[in-house]
Amino acid sequence: MKKPEKIYNTAVEATLEVIGGKWKPVILFYLTFGKKRNNELKGLIPAITQKVLTQQLRELKEAGVVTRISYNQVPPKVEYELTEYGWSLKEILHLMCRWGDTHIERIYGSKADVLAPPRFEAT
């Protein structure tokens, strides 16, 4: 019998291996609304450093859920978008956002706010 290359306790671990961490789900969530340039993402997530944003985008690209589009022009233009595989995360990311809204309301009530609440299209 062939020995498995990797063993997970649950498939949730495999999901978190790709989208886990503080910033990856946020980056992916914003990409569900379309292509974004690096500075657009930085503007949407002001607390993230440029170094961390670059690293997270690189890891998401390596995982096959984000693609980097580089345009041959001056000045250089680079955009990021979800791959077809990355789009399969849309539902879970939007559900996480909705759950977060409910959680904020339950725990903090009117004592907390979401700076940029997204406008979801009908799903």
Descriptive account of the structure:
- It holds the Pfam family HxlR.
- This is HxlR family transcriptional regulator.
- Helix content is 49%, strand content 11%.
- With 123 residues, it is mostly helical.
- The chain has a single domain, classed as Orthogonal Bundle (Arc Repressor Mutant, subunit A).
- Strands 1-3-2 form a three-stranded antiparallel β-sheet.
- Helix 2 packs across helix 6.
- The longest helix has 19 residues.
Question: Which short descriptors sum up this protein?
Answer:
123 residues, mainly alpha, Arc Repressor Mutant, subunit A, three-stranded antiparallel sheet, 3 strands, HTH_HxlR, DNA-binding, WH-like_DNA-bd_sf, HxlR family transcriptional regulator
What is the compact description of this entry?
This is HxlR family transcriptional regulator. With 123 residues, the chain is mostly helical.
Layout of SSEs?
Blueprint: H1 11-19, H2 24-31, E1 36-37, H3 38-44, H4 50-62, E2 66-71, E3 77-82, H5 84-87, H6 90-108
Antiparallel strand pairs: 1-3, 2-3
Protein name: HxlR family transcriptional regulator
Keywords: DNA-binding, Transcription, Transcription regulation
GO molecular function, one term: DNA binding
Number of strands: 3
CATH topology grouping: Arc Repressor Mutant, subunit A
> Treating each run of at least 4 consecutive H or I residues as one helix, how many helices?
6
CATH superfamily: Winged helix-like DNA-binding domain superfamily/Winged helix DNA-binding domain
Organism: Paenibacillus prosopidis
Protein name: HxlR family transcriptional regulator
InterPro entries: HTH_HxlR, WH-like_DNA-bd_sf, WH_DNA-bd_sf
Domain HTH hxlR-type: 10-108
